[in-house]
Write a structure and sequence with these properties.
This protein is α+β, with helices and mostly antiparallel strands. It folds into four domains: 1-121, DnaJ domain (Helix Hairpins, Orthogonal Bundle), CATH 1.10.287.110; 125-161 and 214-268, Sandwich (HSP40/DNAj peptide-binding domain), CATH 2.60.260.20; 171-210, no CATH class; 273-362, HSP40/DNAj peptide-binding domain, CATH 2.60.260. Helices cover 23% and strands 26% of the residues. The strands form six sheets. It has a four-stranded mixed beta sheet. The protein has a three-stranded mixed beta sheet with strand order 1-9-8. It has a two-stranded antiparallel sheet with strand order 2-7. A hairpin with a 2-residue loop joins strand 4 (182-189) and strand 5. The chain is elongated.
Length: 382
Amino acid sequence: MPKRDYYDVLGVRRTASADEIKSAYRRLARQYHPDVSKETKKVAEEKFKEISEAYEVLADEAKRRRYDQLGFSGVESDFGPGGFTWQNFTHVGDLEDLLGSSPIFRQFFGGMGSPFGVGSRRVEARGQDVELSVRLPLVAAVTGARPTIEVPRTTACADCRGTGAKDGTALETCPECGGNGQVRRVQNRGFAQLISIGECPRCRGTGRAILERCPTCGGAGQIRSTARIELNVPPGIDDGAVLRVPGQGMGGRAGIRSGDLYVQIVLEPAAHLRREGADAYSEATAPLATALLGGEITIPTLEAQASLKVPAGTQPETQFRLRGKGFPRLPGSGRGDLIVTLHVELPRSLGSRERELVRDALGASPAAPSGRREPIWRRRST
């Protein structure tokens, strides 16, 4: 069964705000949770997973931007080879105030017989993402490109091996979380209790506290550096598209994986070309004789120059379509067309012989001879 558009799954417009998307998800989550849904358990589980996958993408600004530009292929790398699983769902907190400490919430997200195997899972610690932009010539949308970019990032301190402790050994079990790396917080709201579990602020989720800080990194466990990365820009890329490079963001501390790198592609405009989707638009000029009698002219294309056959009697502003000479379509389904608007160049002046030939060819009447008229009084005197 083909996947449905994420906006259709949540029943929102493509221009929906973040609050509208969250509201739609909360409404559907209440309706299709397996413990309250009127559907069969299997149908409810599949529906609940479907709306949660859609929310996971649309509630994240970066993921939503990539989905809008590239469709499902733009976010598939955020999930595993088998697609979205509950280990990829990072918005459990958006349901806590909806379901609170009810048996439904504890059963689904508390690990007591969860039908999806979510359980009480520990949120994976990861470094911050890095966002950059790179400018490329318009031809990169045709041929692709592999520019080398410099990315500011953090890497593990070699002296402490990313632990932040002197020599990597001056550590003890964290007294605040007891080595779990997480702390449990309880808030009372009337007759309800809100229980949240988050990363331990003292050990930053590692479960190990520093006894003596590393003198090289000051206990941070990481140092700043610059990485040179070759970026693979595919043919057909759109202006403003964002590419994700997994694991090339901030990182360095022991026990966490690096964040991701997001690169926005900015395509520089070309003076002689305009892009609309996969089609390219260009302009060319032909001499009057070529437009009248027919012939060939040389025109610029996306990659090189080409010859354009001009039929005899071609009118000014005629458009010619060159099939397959436009931009590639993602993901590799052919190319668009090049549409050329032809202007006709008129001569600025003609010699007497040329004037005579034009009048003969077009059947035009000769122009009245120019010169000064004789004064009336002089004609009367004679």
